[in-house]
Amino acid sequence: MKKRLPAAAAILVTATALVACSPGEQGGGSTAASGNGASNCTNTIPKKNLPVVTMWGWYPNMQLVVDNFNKQNGEVQVCWTNVGQGSDEYDKFQTAISAGTGAPDVIMIEMDRIPTFQIQKSLVDIKKYGFDRVKADYGDGAWKDVSVGDAVYGVPVDGGPMAMIYRKDLFEKYDITPPKTWAEYEQAAQKMKDAGGPQFGDFAANVSALTMALQIQKGAVPFTYDPAQPSSIGIKLNDQASKDVLDYWAGLVKKGLVGTQDQFTPEYISGVINGKYATYISAAWAPGYLTGAGVGKGEDTGKFAVAPLPQWDPANPVQVNWGGSAFSVTSQAKNPELAAKAAYGLYADKESLTQGWTNQIIFPLNLKALNDPAFVDLKVAFFDGQQANKEVYVPAANAYKGVTYSPFGQYYFDAMTKQVTALHEGSVTGAQAADRLQEDVANYAKEQGFTAQ
């Protein structure tokens, strides 16, 4: 699930924690495998004689998912609570980590946050608790995103393979063919502007995860990290690929071909509805988000379609991802094995998966759904009946190779926002922004106790 909105507060790791972190106290505040002693459950637990695993999660259909798991499982039951979405939940988890008590047994977190908590030894490597039985249910890219080194710290649930959503009416009006390369994207943008059309897209400062993904598509490898050397990290934010991508988008901004409006705002959504932007570079969760925000209804019904993400080298296409969440086992779980059973089993049954993708709540990473003909062949209403999964999103998801995230991802995203804002203002070039970003993040890493490579 996307939910990559700007965090209210970064979850940062101190130098002391990095160099000499200690594992969380086992069992503080959790009720796993202790009988049905869980309290404050949002759900009703039907099998009261079984041990209980506590869980935090925010998916809109989590009630159904938990109920399905509890009905079908004869070993453990899940007590679910929604303590907030994204940063709201992370703040509470960080408090529990610091206190050594109060964390759930299983927690839903975005994949790019896993290293932040793993380095504090607040998550459990679940590879020994049934990984081999479910490994084939997910692709290699999905597993890489929830792994740190060879250890697995979460069960993939949903992802965000990227594509280009576009306005069919605007493309038809200005005789535009969906661009297959970024060079064609710029040419199409210029053609539309020259004909008096709207901006072709938007390069926002508040979507750093998107910018990172586009740089990775060009060949950038922002971070390299080996948990066997926890105080050392490779940081390459000003390589040529990263500079090229920033210069490319800065050039589009300077020519007036794309806007600079922050995304996920009422102003941006209003622009999408009113045809201010011809394209929306985003992920597979976007149709659900846009529909919920009022896009694709009323006068703009049936006006959207989706095409594969433009490539730098069409002979060597690279697919990238924006967003995605997982179920992780915390180090405060009294019985990590039972907690892992819940993590592996939640959102893995057919009814939960189907309900999730049918209502555009998730883009599933479980291959039982990803390969389901009903999902693959779905005629997506938002895209006027286009088989978007078959044509675009499933091939992108299958080709995605995964990413190595950093233990201080939020600081990096915030620092990226600062530099893209400077790009918008015209005070730096893309190359200069990349150099400044490299210096900022490398210095921060050193302050946190890392040796930056």
State the gist of this model.
This is Multiple sugar transport system substrate-binding protein. This protein is α/β, with parallel strands linked by helices.
Any overview of this molecule?
With 453 residues, the protein is an alpha/beta fold. It has 2 domains: 15-159 and 323-382, D-Maltodextrin-Binding Protein, domain 2; 160-320 and 404-452, D-Maltodextrin-Binding Protein, domain 2 (3-Layer(aba) Sandwich). The chain contains 19 helices and 14 strands. The chain has helices at 15-19, 62-72, 87-99, 114-118, 131-134, 140-145, 168-173, 182-194, 208-218, 240-254, 266-273, 286-292, 336-345, 350-358, 367-370, 373-376, 388-399, 409-425, 430-447, and strands at residues 52-56, 77-81, 106-110, 147-148, 151-152, 155-167, 201-202, 223-225, 232-235, 258-259, 279-283, 304-308, 321-329, 451-452. Strands 1, 2, 3, 6, 11, 12 and 13 form a 7-stranded mixed sheet that branches. Helix 9 (208-218) packs across helix 10 (240-254) and helix 18 (409-425) runs antiparallel to helix 19. The longest helix has 18 residues, at 430-447. The radius of gyration is 22 Å and the shape is globular. Mean pLDDT is 91; it is low at 1-37. This is Multiple sugar transport system substrate-binding protein.
Write the layout of secondary structure elements.
Blueprint: H1 15-19, E1 52-56, H2 62-72, E2 77-81, H3 87-99, E3 106-110, H4 114-118, H5 131-134, H6 140-145, E4 147-148, E5 151-152, E6 155-167, H7 168-173, H8 182-194, E7 201-202, H9 208-218, E8 223-225, E9 232-235, H10 240-254, E10 258-259, H11 266-273, E11 279-283, H12 286-292, E12 304-308, E13 321-329, H13 336-345, H14 350-358, H15 367-370, H16 373-376, H17 388-399, H18 409-425, H19 430-447, E14 451-452
